[in-house]
Structure formats: structure tokens, C-alpha cells
Task: structure prediction
Amino acid sequence: MQKLTIKGKKKLSGTISISGSKNASLPILASTILFKKVNLKNIPMVKDVFTMIELLRFIGLKVSINSKNNSLKISNSNIKINPIAPYKLVKTMRAGVLVLGPLLSKFKKAKVSLPGGCAIGTRPVDLHLFALKKLGAKIKIKEGYIYATATDGLKGEKIKFPKISVGATENAIIAATHATGETVLLNCAIEPEIKDLIDFLKKSGCDIKCNGRKITINSKKKFKNSKHTIMFDRIEAGTYLIASALIGKKMTLTNLKPKIISNEIKTLKKMGVKIKVQKNKIVISESSNIKNQVLRTSPYPGFPTDLQAQMMVLMTKANGVSKIQENIFENRFMHVPELKRMGAKIEIKNNIAIINGPSKLSGAEVMATDLRASVSLVLAGLVAENRTTINRIYHLDRGYENLEKKFVKCKANIKRI
Result:
């Protein structure tokens, strides 16, 4: 099994180009089931994307990958579509449930495995099913699978989500594009990745309008072949921003839109991080006096839960007591015991982490438990004394493209073994 070893305390300097967004790619890939031909650019070559491609091929789509220029060509001319998402593919990637909406919408039936357990929380699919039932689907759950049918096709409806959910919003939008009549979705998630999905669907001929947390979709009979460039990965950008704040001398991040991560930039500036924002890049200068901060995770445009673990590492270097209240997932502090083994002073009270800083981190052998927890351990290793070894790094490969190569280019001492 592969590991990462990091010799800490090496100042970072250089330029990192931010990859395409994993969280934008997955729903867009799922929605390609609806269309005949699609060309996608700026696709991140990460494990979750490859799993979704494997799922699309299992269903019957043709997918050709050009890994040199991060692009995909997808065609859906196969009459023999297999409207099934098996457990072996969905178990490692919760976004697999996003094929439920397009399969049901276009082929009027689907059999999709319930996602497996997830280290950071339950992430139930009840809101996905709630929306699809409102659109007229008949749904049964049997032997770990969702069996869904819409014999007469899906029909537009007014749907108010009882709780904001990114995945359920995506599934409902995709399904509604082929439903009869008008669908109005209320209390929607409005993450930038959802807006990227909508941009792609519009290019494919769909009629979609957004107004705050209200999204209106009108069915159309004709769709067209489309090309789309996936947005930058804002979580990857935030991760490298925090790494630069921790141990950067002078770092430049390119291939991004700073406006989309303005909240994260504002938070880091409050903590004393020296950031200069330009049109499509960010420059971070050496920041020695980090201030304590109180944060709460919340749906976009609030502070993202996917950056909570990374921010906690920065708070170990802050002067005074910092706090993070985790409001999205009930079990997203699994990195804390590993950080404490490295010398971090962190206390957990219900859904609040209390971080006493500054604390001196020391290298240790640690274990990754999920995608974002694993990258927080990388950041801790970069600032720790001595050597850090991170086990179970397959979590990292699910969502970070060329992570160690990007760090090595910026003079980090990090190796995959």
C-alpha cells in the first residue's frame, strides 16, 4: 500500500496551477447520460472521476479520455443502455447516486445501489428520493438498491427542499430537464459547482433559470451536442492557499477565479495572511503572525466544510484560541486524533473544535480517514519537525490531482513510496 513521507520545515515557493473541479465534474458526467455527444475540458484526472467514467461505460456510454490535455469525449448512441449502477462502483464514490435522475428521466427506469458508509457522516439519499418522487417516480428500496420507475415519464412540479442539499439539488435539476412541463425547485443549494452544472446543461439546450435559491427548469424537446470547460477546483485552491499561509515564502496560484473563493480569502486575510488578488491568480507572501479565528461551516457562500480540516492545521499556528463549529457533517473531526499525535492542542466539544495555538508540530506516522482529513495531515507534515509518514493515501487520490508533484515543484520534500 502506498504512503507519503514528508520532511517538514521546507519553505514553499513557486507557482501552482489549480486543476478542474472534482465536485463539478461528477454531476456533469452523470448528466451526459441525457445527451448524444459531449466534449469536456479541464477534467481532473482523479480516482472519483475515473470511477464515474467506469460507471458510465457500464451503463453503455462510450468515453474516450485524453489525459495529456485533461479532456473527455462522451457519446451515447447505444440503444442497449443498462440502467443500473452496481454497488461495486457506487460504494467507493457517493456521487454515483447522481445517475439516478438522468436514467429515470430518459429511460424511465433505474436500479442504483445505495451508497456505502462514509467516514465523515451518513449523507442520506432521502432528499434525492423526495425530489424524484415529487416528479412522479415510483421508488422502492430492496436489498441495498433503489428501484425507480416512471412509466409515463417524469412530470414538472414545484418542489421545496426541507433542507439544503447539494447532491439532491443536482439530481433534481438533471432529472427535471427531461420532465414534461415546468419544474420549480426551492431552497436549493447554490454552490458554484451547481452553477457550473447549469451552465453545461444550458449549452446542451436545456432551459434553466436561477434566482437565488430558486431554480426553474422548463422541458425542451430538442437538445444539442455541446462543449464545456469544467470550473477550477475551489477546494484544491483553498488547500494550497492554506499551505502557502502555513509555510510559503512566495506562492502564486493560477487558473482560478478569486471571486468564487472570496469568503475564504477574506477569512485568511483576517488571520493575518498576506494575500494579493489579481484577475485569474492569487499571490501569497510569507505570513509569520497568524491570528486566532472563530469559524462556522455552512452551505455556500458560507465557509466550506471541505476546508475545515485544512484550516484547523493553520489554527495550530495561530496566536490564541481558535474555534471551528462543524454544521454540515456529524463526524468530520476524524483528523483530530492524528493531529494531536503530532502535537496539536485540540479539544472537541460536541460539534465544536477548540484549537490552542501556537503549538509545535512534530512528525509522526499517521493514518488518513477521508479525503480532506488526509490532505490536512499533508499540511501538518509540511510544517512539522522531522519526518511524517501518511498511510492510506488512496483517499487523497480520490480528489487531488498530482498533489505531491505540485508540492515538489514548489520545493517541498515529499515522496510517494
